[in-house]
Design goal:
With 277 residues, the protein is mainly α. It has helices at residues 10-32, 42-51, 53-112, 119-126, 149-165, 179-194, 206-209, 222-240, 243-247, 258-268; strands at residues 114-116, 169-170, 175-176, 196-198, 201-203, 217-219. It has a two-stranded antiparallel ribbon. It has a two-stranded antiparallel sheet with strand order 2-3. The radius of gyration is 39 Å and the shape is rod-shaped. The two termini are 74 Å apart.
């Protein structure tokens, strides 16, 4: 699109040039084919308007078309200004939206005493369509449909359901279901992919690591960590969706199993841990 001033518009000047040439050619043709004499009275003036009606109309039409070209040019300029303003707003709003997302995660990590990494990567994952030229405040996938956050929600619920299923304490054998360790390890792997880490951990020794898929440390308050991760997911949901949509999200709770999980972590500090599995 041409955004030069009207004075530099080729169409505008072409309209004038063609109009003047057409009028001039008509005047020459009329003048050369008639024997005119210089006359200044009213009748001569009336005859002048009659003889030269065509070139006068051509000149009038030239100004009309030139004016129409000017209107179109001004409309294009206005449209360009609107587009430019929109692009500038989208540019600034994109960075402001991303900054708010990062600030929200920073504030969350400070309030809940956890470490969150890959904040910009998580933003790109939840808002893959957003860039300096396009902005959406609702999280969508690259295909424009279901958000990636729903995958994290489903994974969270699935892993907590599996943990709840294997939280068993056998009174007769005084042992825990060994599958609990594997499921807790799977949950930690999931949270690491989400970018969240506990800062208050129990360091595992070599013997304990084999039960937890070589994970080096576990949150001391595992059920509290479940709660923190669920709060993070809901914080992401309210940032990424409308309030109505976020209110519909339901996460699995594991508070009823707090006693067994805390017992597991307590027994892990005893030697040997193998006796409890």
């Amino acid at each position: 699109m041409n955004h030069k001033p009207l004075s530099q518009s080729r169409l505008f000047w072409l309209t004038f040039i063609l109009g003047v040439l057409a009028a001039t050619a008509t005047i020459i043709a009329i003048t050369s084919n008639n024997n005119f004499m210089l006359c200044t009275d009213v009748k001569c003036f009336s005859n002048f308007l009659e003889y030269y009606a065509i070139p006068i109309k051509i000149i009038s039409a030239t100004f009309f078309v030139a004016g129409f070209v000017a209107v179109i040019h001004r409309s294009n300029q206005t449209h360009h200004q609107i587009e430019l303003t929109h692009e500038q707003n989208t540019f600034s709003n994109f960075y402001e939206h991303k900054k708010q997302f990062v600030d929200m995660l920073v504030q969350f990590s400070e309030e809940h005493e956890v470490r969150i990494t890959g904040k910009h990567k998580l933003y790109s994952q939840l808002f893959p369509l957003n860039n300096i030229g396009e902005l959406s405040f609702t999280s969508k996938s690259t295909k424009g449909n279901r958000s990636e956050l729903y995958f994290h929600i489903q994974t969270f619920n699935t892993k907590l359901e599996l943990i709840k299923e294997c939280i068993e304490w056998n009174d007769e054998t005084q042992k825990l279901n060994p599958e609990i360790c594997n499921q807790l390890a799977n949950f930690l792997i999931f949270t690491k992919r989400l970018g969240v880490y506990s800062t208050d951990n129990l360091i595992l020794d070599k013997n304990d690591k084999k039960h937890f898929r070589s994970i080096n440390e576990l949150p001391k308050d595992f059920t509290g960590y479940f709660y923190i991760v669920s709060e993070l997911i809901m914080a992401l949901a309210y940032f990424s969706f409308s309030k109505e949509e976020a209110d519909k999200i339901r996460l699995v709770s594991i508070n009823d199993s707090r006693k067994v999980i805390n017992q597991l972590l307590k027994e892990m500090q005893k030697n040997p841990f193998d006796e409890w599995l």
